[in-house]
Amino acid sequence: MSDSVLIGKGKLELRLLARMANRHGLVAGATGTGKTVTLRVMAEGLSALGVPVFLSDVKGDLAGMAQAGEANPKFAARAKEMGIADYAPAASPVVFWDVLAEQGIPIRATISDMGPLLLGRLLNLNETQNGVLNIVFKVADQQGLLLLDLKDLTAMLQHVGQNAKEYSTGYGNVSPASVGAIQRGLLALSEQGADKFFGEPMLTIEDLLARDAQGRGVVNILAADKLMSTPKVYATFLLWLLADLYEKLPEVGDMDKPKLVFFFDEAHLLFDEAPKVVLEKVEQVVRLIRSKGVGVFFASQNPLDIPETVLGQLGNRVQHALRSFTPKDQKAVRAAAQTFRNDGSVDVEQAIGQLAVGEALCSLLDETGSPMPVEVAKVAPPRSRLGAIADGERQKIVHASPLYGHYAQSIDRESAYEMLKARASGGGDGSDSADKAGGKGGKGSAKSDGGEHDEKKHSWWTGVSEVLASAGKVMNSRVGAEIIRGVLGSRVGGSPPRRRRS
Q1: CA distances, 286 to each of 258, 305, 308, 489 (Å)
Q2: How many CB atoms neighbour CB 500 within 10 A?
Q3: Which pLDDT tens digit goes with each residue over 248-291?
Q4: Tens digits of residue pLDDT in 160-207
Q5: Which residues of 303-339 are buried (b: 16+ CB within 10 A; e: fewer)?
Q6: Do residues 9 and 377 lie in contact, with contact meaning Cβ atoms separated by under 8 Å?
Q7: Closest CA to 1 of 437, 327, 367, 303
């Protein structure tokens, strides 16, 4: 079937239908049971169908997808056993990304696009501190002060703190203690390398939706082995990316193929210690993003790592072995077994503990969108190289990408830091220039030849002009500049203007 990906084979071939890939999925299993290979097989197959993929490389071994695999007798034997006539080693078109700008094309977001909800979680703020952070964003949004990097947010936080009495009247209490807590959090975040992530040029979502000259979907691989040392940064970044896809992509309804399939590895990190409001927003995004043509696959060691409200939306299931050495493990196995549709032909609870490496319990959606009865299956062999690649190979691929020239160098344009600095030095931000130019007796007032008739002739137009200029000023500095934020606090309707690619 040209519109599906062969995942494995039990009694029958088990295929992930392209048109059902946006119904989301789960790949679960203990460490060392073959979960990463299954992710690789899915990504390779979707790419071959022309579907772009985004996945995070938390162990560094998915990078091998950029190279064709070497001859492997075990893989060849399994391909023959499964009846894969066209099996041959092959590479996928890969673009490497890296938040830390070391092992891939730099991937950045602006503070403003991250939004106060996700940033508050990243900083581990309490409810009161989150309230102050929301005030900071609200003031910046309304005054047209762009928050692009950490120094912008630091300057904006200092500005609101210094004018706390003024802003407390309109927005609520701004306490010095909360301001100080946020400042300390920003300092710690900077020391973790976040200063490389926040800034411009910001990632353009369309750059993740590319295909190569052969029509294959690009496999976007995020280098996350070092990022995993700060799990909250990792989880928040991927959640921001998911939210940005949701906010920026148009509604498309059901498609023959997804626009993108997003793999969220180590998914438990997303939900660990997440406040209730964040969990509710995640559930909402997962539920609605399928209408944007995006499929989301969570990968985790245990299905119980995923909240029930999210787990219920994951129609495609692949479960590798779970070991049950303790009563808690046994409870997890029983719970995992209950998530499958079973026609009675498989003792799922027993099978989960007996699966060999490279075997899995599979229940994928059929053409009607219903889960097929679970089967024990041997997972299809991958075609790309297993394991990591040499740094020289990686850098060659990174620099060959047409995206590298655009994202390689950061841009530091005028934003909140510069504008507030200008205000403090008495230079203003330019918002009062119209008043100075058009005021009575000013150099910019309407010219006259000294005649009384000429002064009366222009007096009515001068009054109208002043009213229009004043109205325009208000629109530009307040309503016109105010940012509309979406379900997870991300900017709706795109990012602020940026430099075009050369």
Answers
A1: 14, 16, 12, 15
A2: 6
A3: 999 998 899 999 999 999 999 888 888 888 888 899 999 999 99
A4: 999 999 999 889 999 999 999 999 999 988 888 778 899 999 999 999
A5: bbbbeeebbebbbbbbbbbbebeeeeeeebbeebbeb
A6: yes
A7: 367
Q: For residues 198 and 108, is the Cβ–Cβ distance under 8 A?
A: yes
- How far is Cα 199 from Cα 149, in angstroms, rounded to an integer? 5
Chain segment 440-453, per-residue pLDDT in tens: 334 333 434 444 44
As given in the structure block, the two tokens for residue 410 are 């950061």
d(CA 270, CA 251) in angstroms, rounded, equals 25
pLDDT of residue 34: 92
Reduce the DSSP state of residue 157 to 3 states and report it: helix
In three-state secondary structure terms, 79 is: helix
Does pLDDT of 437 surpass 60?
no
Confidence of residue 407 (pLDDT cuts 50, 70, 90): very high
**Of the candidates 49, 21, 42, which has an alpha carbon nearest to the alpha carbon of residue 295?**
21
What are φ and ψ of residue 356, in 5° steps? Answer: -80, 165
At residue 481, the 3 state secondary structure works out as coil
Q: What is the mean pLDDT of residues 419-439?
A: 60
For residue 499, the model assigns a pLDDT of 41
Whose tokens are 């890296």? That residue is: 98
Token look-up 């679960």 returns 28
Fill in the DSSP letter of residue 55. E
What is the rounded CA–CA span in Å between residue 355 and residue 110? 45
Predicted TM-score (pTM) of the model is 0.85
What does each C-alpha distance from 129 to 172, 192, 450 come to in angstroms?
12, 21, 60
What are the residues whose beta carbons fall under 8 Å from the beta carbon of 474, sequence distance 6 or more?
A: none
Report the distance separating Cα 187 and Cα 92, nearest Å: 40
Quote the CA–CA distance of 45 and 39 in Å, as a whole number.
10
One-letter identity of residue 354: Q
Q: Phi first, then psi: what are they for 101, rounded to 5°?
A: 60, 35
Q: Which residues contact 91 (CB under 8 A, 6 or more apart)?
A: 65, 66, 67, 68, 384, 385
Tokens found for residue 250: 């148009």
